[in-house]
Amino acid sequence: MILALWLLAAFALPLFPMGWLFNRVLASLPVGWPQALAVLLIPQLGVAALRATHEGWDLPSQWAFYGALWVLLSALFYAFRALSARELGIWTRLLASSGLALTWLDWGSGATWPATEVFVLSWSLPAALLLLLAGALTRRLGGAYLGLQGGLVAVLPRLTASLTMCALALLATPLFPGFFALLRAFDRLPLAFVPLLMPLPLLWGWAAGRFFQDLLFGAYRGEPVTDLGRGPALLIGIALAAFLFVSLLGSGVGL
Amino acid sequence: MDSLAACVPFLPIASGLVILAFLRRHPRGAARLSVGALLVTFLGAATLLGHYIIAGGVEVLDLGGAWGSLWLDPLSLVLWTFVSGISLIVHVYSVRYMVEEPGYARFFALLDLMTAVILFMVGAADLVTLAVAWFLVGVLLYFLLGHDHTRPAAGRYAFWTQITYRFGDLPLWFASLILVERYHSLSLPVIFARIQAHPGVLLWGLPVPLLAGLLLALAAFARSAQFLLHTWLPYTMDGPTPVSALMHAGIVNAGGFLFNRFAPLFEHAGMALHVAFAMGLVTAVVGSALMLIQNDVKRSLGYSTMGQMGFMVMECGLGAFPLAVFHLIAHGFFKASLFLGAGGVIGDARRHDGVPPDPIYTSVVERRPAKPSRLPWLVAASLTVLVPIVVIGLSHFFVAEHLFYEQGVVVLLFFGWVTGAQALFAAHKMSHQDPWRLMLGILASFVVIVVGYTLISHYFGALLYPDLSESRGLYQAASIHMLSFDGLVLSLAALFVGGWALTFFADGLDLASNLQGRGRGVYLAIYALLSREMYVADIYAFVSQILLRWSRQLNVWLGWC
């Protein structure tokens, strides 16, 4: 039973090689709402599975060391793979996997359950919004493959602005919760691990650069398309603002 | 004063957010609000600085949380005034310059947010605020540099900047984590007090200040475009001119700021200062060499900034921390004016090629002047070598004699001597009808500049570091063994004098025809190396292509899941 729970957690909080299954399940769902809901709910399932094990990270210290190393390598592996992804759905899935894998470190360092759930939401909420927007993009352009049509900002300003902000949130940009979650993970790890974790933000930054290059720059030469409505854009803006506000409160800033 | 201090960095944030929320369709209103907010910010910062100069007193403005505190010390107040002043100039310039660009209101909002983030960065009193602001500068700069979405090149070079900045974020985070772990506080004043009390705390067998100092120096190198981390700087010219001005005048100076902010730590990290000196020296030489062969005004200015940043980091490496701040401010003003004037100069050059169309006028201008002459070589050599050393030496002797006992100051005086001698030598090489008049004019300018610079930099140093022991501690940390130092200075002096002699007698030795022979190949190889900007960007592009190919291959094997 315990083994099944561990495997469920490794699937839902994507740890290589179970993370492959996580990505496969997401990819098999229809684009848009189903994928967005899945990326919100499956990681929560992982947290519940970890909770059910009641074990924490009380493995022998050598196991804990190799476990933490495996988590770090998983996160780096998905971030590295995101560099070459140009389809918005794949890009989002791989980066979400990279961030969500770090939940194991948070849990392993003895974080409280609410804190771990917030940690998970830091990655899964922006990923869900991005997958929703990938659906919107697919409906307009027939696919969410970036780079084929440059300069989307000229024809889809609201959609690209929403995509940009959600991508920044997913990539742990201050002041979004991912940044503080990452700092917390850094802070709780033994210092010897920190140099291993350091390339992670660099890979995320690289992935972001390629994403923005494909999304924002160039001249659009496709068919005329309609932008995201004011209502949905406003809703996404409100969601991100609320996310930011909660992040600031949770980070302990003096306001 | 506390509430005014709290308002200074928040005002541009408020202005930026109001523009984004309500004024995106009202470009004129956005520009007016933005300029007005910056004017008030600048006046607020100047008032705080004035209040400090008159009344004194350093305080930490704690907003009551785990982070978000501001340190109102001389460094913050001076840089607040400088940054808001430069930003105000850039804002005012942008009002007309950017008027025909799409996204006018967004541009002002981003400028406001960038200014606010820099103000938070230089005023941060805790490590989290510093790390957040340090990171956000890179993010906002990316969007400012990529303001023109229609040009893929703008995005590409904005990405180069962003990824280098991200590379520089990581050592800062690591250093912060080490300091928090070993000194048990997020607050910078508290950490510095504990470092003074316990500088010998170890991590992995190394003193923590040294380890953190090396990491902080690396973070500073990335921000200030030191050699191998410099490729982004010359290419940021693809961004709008006001952004280039803001970047070259303010943002790129973050390295010098970081050294000064962590000065109490660097007092115990001599090796980090030596590394900074070496890196700054290499960057200054490479930046200046690359600047000389550019044929594009803005890129030439970019490489000039790289060279200046090298000098600034080198000054930190010598322990002359306040001089680095003075340098960054002086460089900021002159580089901002050069960038803001560059567009007009390029426009003028396109309209007028500078060749007088009138043949009579041309013949008059091109008429050979009366036979030029030069000073006798012995007089010229004496003036060139002796006058700078006498002027620089005397001016420092009268202002602060104790500085002569610091190695860092001696090295800077040495550079001053070389630069001054170079200027006089160049003047001598110019043929002129009245060589005495030319030389006396240059000597008079030289005296005014040196005396002025010495006085200003001395009083500025006293403002930033009122505690003399701190200044001395930094110079001591930057010192090396006396014998090695003397040998280094003497060999460098011999090298420079030999170089001048070689140039002076170049005609007699017939160097030009020698270059046509064996030396020609070496000359061409060096020229090719420099014209390809030392292949640094090419190597990075090659390595990144390999990594991308591996990433793609992995994804193909795993079915993109």
- With strands numbered from the N-terminus, the spatial order across the biggest sheet of chain B is 1-2
Number of domains of chain B: 4
Provide the β-strand percentage band of chain A. Answer: under 5%
Structural class, from secondary structure content of chain A?
A: mainly alpha
* Proportion in helices of chain A: over 70%
Q: Please compute the radius of gyration of chain B using only Cα atoms.
A: 25 Å
Tally of extended strands of chain A? Answer: 0
Task: Note the quaternary state here.
Answer: heterodimer
Which value, in Å, is the CA radius of gyration of chain A? 18 Å
Report strand % of chain B.
under 5%
Q: Main sheet of chain A?
A: none
Going by helix content, strand content and strand pairing, the class of chain B is mainly alpha
| Overall residue-averaged pLDDT value of chain A | 90
**What gross morphology of chain B would you assign?**
globular
Number of strands of chain B: 4
Helical segment count of chain A = 13
**Largest sheet of chain B, if any?**
2 strands, antiparallel
Kindly give the count of domains of chain A.
Answer: 1
Q: Count of helical segments of chain B?
A: 25
Can you describe this structure?
The complex is a heterodimer of chains A (255) and B (561). Chain A has one domain (2-251). Chain A has 255 residues and is mostly helical. The radius of gyration of chain A is 18 Å and the shape is globular. The longest helix of chain A has 29 residues, at 113-141. Chain A has 13 helices and no strands. Helices cover 74% and strands 0% of the residues of chain A. In chain A, helix 4 packs parallel to helix 12. Chain B has four domains: 1-125; 173-344, no CATH class; 375-504, no CATH class; 516-561. Chain B has helices at 2-22, 27-55, 74-97, 104-123, 127-145, 152-183, 188-197, 208-223, 232-235, 241-249, 254-261, 263-266, 270-292, 297-317, 321-351, 359-366, 377-399, 407-429, 435-464, 468-478, 482-504, 506-509, 511-515, 518-531, 536-557; strands spanning 59-61, 70-72, 202-203, 206-207. Chain B is globular, with a radius of gyration of 25 Å. Helix content of chain B is 77%, strand content 2%. A two-stranded antiparallel sheet of chain B has the order 1-2. In chain B, strands 3-4 form a two-stranded antiparallel ribbon. Chain B starts with a helix and ends with a helix. With 561 residues, chain B is an all-alpha fold. The model of chain B has no long low-confidence stretch (mean pLDDT 87). The chains are: A mainly alpha (255), B mainly alpha (561). Chains A and B meet through helix 2, helix 4, helix 10 and helix 12 of A and helix 5, helix 6 and helix 25 of B.
